[in-house]
What we know:
The chain is of the alpha/beta class.
Amino acid sequence: MSSEGARPGLLLVLSAPSGAGKTTLAHRFRATHPDAVFSVSATTRAPRGAEREGADYHFVSAEAFSRLVAEGAFAEWAEVFGQRYGTLRSTIDETLRAGRIAIFDIDVQGGEQLHRAFPRDAVTVLIVPPSLAELERRLRGRSTDSDDVIQRRLAAAQAEVARGLSTYDYVVVNDELHAAQARLEAIAAHERSKRGGRADPGAAAAAAECLRHSVDVRAWAP
Ligand code: ADP
Ligand code: 5GP
């Protein structure tokens, strides 16, 4: 919670279908906000590629995860693709105490839970590519996924976007990278100044254009 004069913390929840550009945007945001930290989730899945313990995830056994659930260590957790993932309460407490920004890379159901648990501190942002066709182009461009896997990712993307479009605070269309980055920065600046009791009219106007109901997402209509 923020107190008069202290910098207010912010829980910046980013959700997106795979391939939308969330990782790219999150890293750019972090580079321009030295006080921002990535929330490192715990997961039961095995590390992939160059992933490192403590940096990408806390990799834990199924038993250890169940213990953490029983201890109430998670602010939210969910099963995604057959593995469990959870956000540690300790990360949130430390971020808010220090008046920092925590960036969360979690799915839409997890974002909804965080929003419910921390209504004053959490802001939810859905990142979408300009269209399903563009998402398909990016997925094909970045990976060697088979057609089958790409089709499954696209179907999952449609469901995730449809849900986020009806529950998230903001929608950032990642058409041109610099423009999307500016939108995300405006949202964070506006939400932070609001919580600190200061006005930032420029950020407020830019953020307002990203409010869920203001964004034209007809390209995502089924
Ligand atoms: P995610 O983390 O959402 O899965 P990534 O950040 O890995 O997505 O981005 C997926 C691919 O799309 C990457 O190859 C990235 O370079 C590319 N990309 C990201 N943003 C844009 C953009 N605005 N325009 C074109 N390509 C983009
Ligand atoms: P991946 O295995 O590709 O790293 O992540 C799979 C999915 O789990 C992604 O959609 C990611 O956003 C989501 N995820 C990662 N950590 C968490 C978490 O702590 N909570 C929830 N609800 N989802 C998470």
